[in-house]
Structures are given as structure tokens and as C-alpha cells.
Amino acid sequence: MDSIMDIRNLNLWYGDHKVLHDISVSLPKNQITALIGPSGCGKSTFLKTLNRMNDLVEGVKITGDVLYNGEDIYDPKLDVTWLRKHIGMVFQKPNPFPMSIYDNIAYGPRVHGITSKVKLDAIVEKSLKDAAIWTEVKDRLNKPALGLSGGQQQRICIARALAVEPDILLMDESTSALDPISTSKIEELALELKKKYTVIMVTHNMQQAVRISDYCAFFLLGDLIEFNKTEDMFSMPKDKRTEDYITGRSG
Amino acid sequence: MRLQFDQQLRQLKAEMLDMGGMCQMAIQQIVESILNGDASRVKNIHEMMNEISQQERSIENICLKLLMQQQPVARDLRTISAALKMVTDMERIGIQACEIAEIIAKGNIRNIEAKVDFKELADEITKMVGMTIESFECKDIDLAHEVIAYDDVVDNLFCAIREELIEKIKNGGSDAEYFVDMLMIDKYFERIGDHAVNIAKWVCFSITGEIKIV
Predict the structure, then answer these.
(1) Structural domain that includes position A156
(2) Nearest to residue A37, comparing CAs of A46, A25, A28?
(3) If DSSP codes are grouped into helix, strand and coil, which group holds residue A132?
(4) Is B22 inside a domain boundary?
(5) pTM of the entire structure?
(6) Cα–Cα dist A144/B73, whole Å
(7) So what's the ipTM on this one?
(8) Each residue of B98-123: pLDDT tens digit?
(9) For chain A, what is the domain count?
(10) Smallest Cα distance from A123 to chain B, Å
């Protein structure tokens, strides 16, 4: 297993409340890793530590190492904008900017200094194609992104994340607000994306984790209980707590 | 948690045990018939076979419904997928018992005791199928392994009877049809043993997640 992120002895506090307990795990490159666990188990917090989204939370304290391709992402000298260019994020609810489809996708590249119209056109087309929405929007690129359906908006958000050519895409319950058809499109997209990108996703949908993830991490009360190949975890989990959760018998 | 699902799984187990009981009863009847030379004991075997087949359909339907409704994983998925495989082997046991009953019903079985000794093989098969069902009921992996090892005992008895029959045919026994029928019964018993072994392997799978079906 070729890892892209190595997490060592990661602890996280919000004020006095310890949310993550001594997490150590290596996340594999060009694979889909699903983070599962009951509400409040720390999986979303863990996801947010991977591109320093928790920095914005007041009173947060983090110890341990989070290495991206061997580099410590919590090194004070590290440029967070650079980090988030390489590790993009898609949230639970689609959140396109209140601007045109084209400008949504071109936003990131413009921030990173690309001004050439030819280059931007190429990036927009490639990103929308990679996000499997090009054919649906190519004739209305100048229309507002907010006029699209929820599933389309979410794929626009994925295209926006892809436009800055990240290595890793973090997805925080990115299909939970979508209907089954839109969910299915995003799932197929994730399977396609892993050829070029690494996908790390939080999901409450066990069947989704089984359908699309290669590896699975089960969190409970801030502890990483089990990390395993998804197929193995869902057929023969190692830990009874994992078994109880995935079979719906815990709590 | 998942009270309805647990209730459905208990129901599935009860239906499986019923089907196992039907197979045991079918075997018991043919064994008694052979050992007593009494063909009348197997006259309702076709009815029993129909019941076994219906039970197989019923269990398959329960399993498919559970897969659709509950989307099981881990031990639940193993239990249900193993049940789907086990009922096929149970139904085959019923078919083999029915085949034996048909030979018995031809009336060729009288005084069999004097000619071919099936007692030991019949006793071992009865014991083996009983152990198989118990291993499923109690999720007893050691007992399931014992069943799998027991296959050699049954195979050896099958071979011994086969050798005996070959000798009798070589010696110019006058009743060739009878000897062929006895060889068929011998083989059907041996096949019942094989199906019991398959069921025991699925019991192991439902417990460990590992499957070694040849």
C-alpha cells in the first residue's frame, strides 16, 4: 500500500474537550478511504485535520504528526493556501458561489494567478469533464451555478475543487443531501476520480462505504477502532465494536 | 437495536432447523425400511420430498427478502448467504433419500440384510446428518469440523460395500439387478455424506468467514 498521508499519534482538543485520541493511520494513494462511525465520533474532525480546516475553530489544540507526502502539514512555515490547493474539500451541502458556472470553476485558478482566457477555458472544460457534468452545462457556462439542481451543484463544487489540480479530495458527507440518482452519479464519479486523485470521504451510509470505498476507518468516541480493507471490514470485522456498529447493533 | 431484523434471523434459523428435521426424518425412514426390509415405511417419501422442496423455496424467499430489506453485512450477511447455500444441500439430501426410497419401493429390498450389510453405513449417515444440524443450531465449529472429518468414515464404508458387491457380481450372483440397485443405494448414501460435509463447511463460513468448498 502506497500511502499519501501518514497520521501519527494525532490528538485534538476543542478547549478542554478531547475529540481525537492518539490516531495513527496511513491513508493509501489513489484509493477511496471511507471514514465511518456514529455522530460525534470524531470522523469529520479527523477529516478536517487533513487540510487544516480546524485551524479556524477557536480553542483548538492539536498534537501529533500529519504528514502529506512526508511533509508535516502543521509546520508553522507551511503555506496553508498551498496545502488546500493540494488537498481540496467538498462539503455536505452543495455551496457554489453566487456567480456563473464558469466563474465558480475559474475562481481557484484565478486566485493562484492564472489570467489567460485560453488557459482558464481549458481548465474549466477539463474540470467539468472530470466531474462528469460537462455535457450537462457546456451550453450554459455563463448561467448562475445556483440555478442548477442539488446534484449538479455538488458536481460543480467537485469540479471547482478539481480545477486547482489537487492530489487529494476530502468529501464530508457529500451525498447526504442528494437524491438517489444524484448520489449514484457522485459515487460513480468518485470511482472515476480515484484513477487520478485520492479520495477520503466521511459517510453515514454504510452501503455507500461498501459500494465505493477501498479502505475503511471506523471511529468511535474519538478513537480509531479499526482500519481495514472495506471488503474485509464488512465481511469479517476484527473488532466487536466495528461489527456491532456496521450491523446496526451498537448504541 | 434492529429488533425486527433479529426476530427475522431467528425465524430463518427456525425454518432451517425445520428443514433439517425433515431431512433427518426422510433418512430415518429409509434406514428403517432397509434394516427391516419393510418397503411400506417409505410410501410417503414423495410427500416428504415435496415438503422439503417447498421449505427450500420458503427459506430462499426469506433470505432474499432479508437481503433486500436489511442490506446485511458481516455476520448477518454470512448467516444469510450460508443459509441460501445450505438449503440447496439439504434439498439434495432429500432427493438422494427419495432416490433410495424409489429403489426400496420396487420391492427388491426384502431380505437385504442377508445379502448386503448397510447397517453401519446407514447408522453413520444418520449420525453425521444429526451432527451437521446440531453444529448449525449451536454454531459449533468443532462439531462442524468433526462432520467434515467424518466424510472419510462414510467414504470407507461406501468403498467396502462397493468391493463386496463387485465380488458378488464377479462370483456370478444370479440377481444382477438387485446388486446394481444396492450399489446405487451405497452411492446415494455416500452423496448424502458429501452434502452433509458441504453444509458443515457453510456452518464454518458463517462463523469464521472462510470457505473451503471443493
Answers:
(1) 3-246
(2) A46
(3) coil
(4) yes
(5) 0.84
(6) 43
(7) 0.75
(8) 999 988 888 766 555 446 778 889 88
(9) 1
(10) 41
